[in-house]
Specification:
The chain has helices at about 1-10, 20-35, 55-65, 70-80, 80-90, 110-125. It is mainly alpha-helical. Among the domains are: about 1-35, no CATH class; about 55-90.
Length: about 150
């Protein structure tokens, strides 16, 4: 093993080489399986104890009864942590949060306003070519959700 470590230092130019026990385990693994690859790769993640078909079904029923219930309250009532509950909602039930927004009712007058604004601004720019250099345009928007 010392020869292997020396050769590793020489070939790879590193002072830090695998411990003797690590090298022995890799050699033994190679002799047994013909590979040093991790046999559990892709299967090493722990199983999720909360994301069970039964819990998913129960949560679907709870949501059918009260779909507007807050996730914090729902997690308390169901007895599942909020992070696990959110994971089930997103991954298994494919539900995503949203906030209802009240918008202005679209009327004929509302549709005409942007058109008249564009026409008026276009006319002002034609009459005063230097006006465009005095206006600052940004893409910022301030929205207030209630």
């Amino acid at each position: 093993m010392i020869l292997t470590q020396r050769q590793c230092r020489r070939d790879f130019g590193r002072d830090k080489v695998p411990e003797r026990r690590t090298t022995e385990r890799l050699v033994a693994k190679f002799r047994e399986t013909g590979s040093v690859a991790n046999a559990n790769k892709g299967h090493s993640r722990r199983t999720r104890s909360v994301q069970t078909p039964n819990n998913i079904k129960n949560l679907r029923e709870w949501l059918a009864e009260s779909p507007r219930k807050a996730t914090r309250r729902l997690s308390q009532e169901v007895g599942i942590s909020r992070s696990s509950l959110l994971r089930i909602l997103h991954e298994d039930l494919e539900l995503f949060p949203y906030k209802i927004q009240i918008l202005q009712k679209q009327t004929d007058d509302n549709k005409a306003e942007p058109l008249s604004f564009r026409q008026g601004m276009s006319q002002r720019f034609e009459n005063n070519p230097g006006l465009l250099g005095l206006i600052s345009f940004t893409d910022e928007a301030h929205c207030h959700l209630r």
